[in-house]
Amino acid sequence: MSKQNKIIIVGAGLCGSLLALRLAQRGHQVVVYEKRGDMRLEEVDAGRSINLALSARGIMALDRVGLRKTITASCIPMNGRMIHPLGGESFNSPYSGRPEDYINSVSRSDLNILLLNEADASDDVTLHFDAPVKEVDLKNASVTYLNPKTKVLESDQGDIVIGTDGAGSIVRRSLMSRTTELLFNYEQNFLRHGYKELSISPKEDGSWRIDKNALHIWPRGHFMIIALPNLDGSFTVTMFHPYGSDIGFDNLDTDDKIKDFFEKYFPNLIEYMPDYINEYKQNPVGTLGTIKCYPWQAYGKTLIMGDASHAIVPFYGQGMNSSFEDVRIFDDMMDVYGDDWNTIFEKFQDARVDNANAIADLAIDNFYEMRDKVDDKNFMMKRKLEMKLEQQYPDYYSKYSLVTFKPDLGYHDAMVQGRNQDKILLDICDEVKDVSEIDLNSVFQKLQKLNA
Fold first, then answer.
1. 417 CB neighbour count, 10 Å cutoff
2. pLDDT given for residue 409 in this prediction
3. Radius of gyration of the chain (CA)
4. CA–CA separation, 364 and 77 (whole Å)
5. Which residues contact 380 (CB under 8 A, 6 or more apart)?
6. What is the pLDDT of residue 103?
7. Alpha-carbon distance 247 to 227, whole Å?
8. Which residue(s) pair with 216 in the sheet?
């Protein structure tokens, strides 16, 4: 084991708390600064608890800290999407043709609290809440933060600083301040859509009103609603809507407009949400953005990871998983390079940046797919073909499965391979009226040749 280093982490969210725990397990002294209060002592703001989908990449990282079983025991498996078309019958679209492939609905706050508790239990982790970092000295691995008790600015120095402080990262902004010196590139793009959370209450006996083992989608062309199950029998419901237009968040500003909108587009959902009008008015609208940047490190002293370096929209269910994968890959680098932080930082960012950019692009693609295509005839035929291929040929993975269920494959390679496969399958589906007309073996051989 390498000698003990003092590592300052800025941000105690999911990525930061997992990283703190793993670094402490490796024998390092870890000090964490978090601008918010201790979520273990405070109630999560209404409308800010968006559920997460934990899948194979995230689970591999949890294995590193010994929490896989503990955390998956608090999850609800989801085997596929339950699609609810307007005016049509609901139908199930499995994620994979393999029964062992599923994703897990997990509460963001519950997961974060569990990780914080585990980190806090270590003698090598010190957590500071209500302690916003105001400045970062990139070359000297020091931070200036506001002491929550004295309200005076104080400094702390470590061997390295790692920013896991989310999309609004102060550590990334410190890198940006050296744009010329570091040749720092930064790109931020927002969807012209936002999100708002509602809820489906449980039945009186505490059971679920709709299938609990599915991610539910109500696609409506330019907007949609999704719902993920919770352990208490409720569902977290998320509206993804444009800001403008007659049905946008900017226009739905009275009880009558909200009521008319739901009665027109989501009539079968209203019975499950008796308080939807009040929830709609009370809960905030969140933004949906993508951040890409490079480099992720400076001087072998300061590094960013997670949303601080690659924030993505939530439509592939990979935001948390990709951040957790950052921690696992960083851990791999420490196995190889010990505490040679300069080498670790350079190798880490070069291993991750193309993969981070790929999953960001795929998440945007999946937004339009979930919103516009899940009940489209050609798309549904392609999904049936993919299911049959995965059932008959264990070595075949659809694009979604490559990303979600094949964690040993980088996101970039999964994107390239998946997109090439999609083109072939869509061309084949265009030539037939039903999947039964397709020679599966011929298709599989063609795909094998493509991926050779």
1. 18
2. 97
3. 23
4. 24
5. 93, 374
6. 98
7. 20
8. 82, 227
* The residue count for the chain: 452
How would you label 90-113 residue by residue, b for 16+ Cβ within 10 Å and e otherwise?
Answer: eeebbbbbbeebbbbbbbbbbbbb
Nearest to 332 by CA among 64, 2, 21: 64
Residue from 57, 31, 52 nearest 112 by CA: 52
Looking up tokens 């999704």 gives 226
**Which residues in 110-255 belong to E strands, given as ranges?**
125-128, 133-137, 142-146, 153-157, 160-163, 185-200, 215-219, 224-229, 235-242
Q: Which two tokens stand for residue 380?
A: 């549904």
pLDDT of 1 reads 43
Burial class (CB in 10 A: 0-12, 13-18, 19+), 351: middle
> CB–CB of 198/283 below 8 Å?
yes
Query: d(Cα 412, Cα 397) in Å, to the nearest integer?
Result: 15
Regions of the chain where pLDDT drops below 50: 1
- Count the Cβ atoms, other than its own, within 10 Å of residue 71: 19
178: tokens are 């050296």
Q: What are phi and psi of 216, to 5 degrees?
A: -90, 135
Report which residue type is found at 69.
Answer: K
Q: What is the pLDDT of residue 44?
A: 63
Structural tokens at position 166: 């989310």
Q: Are 174 and 162 in contact (CB under 8 A)?
A: no
What are the tens digits of pLDDT across the range 61-91?
999 999 999 999 999 999 999 999 999 999 9
Cβ distance 240 to 226 under 8 Å? Answer: yes
The whole-number pLDDT of residue 268 equals 93
Strand partners, 104: 54, 77
What are the phi and psi torsion angles at 255 (to 5°)? -55, -45
Q: Are 318 and 57 in contact (CB under 8 A)?
A: yes
Supply the pLDDT for residue 380.
86
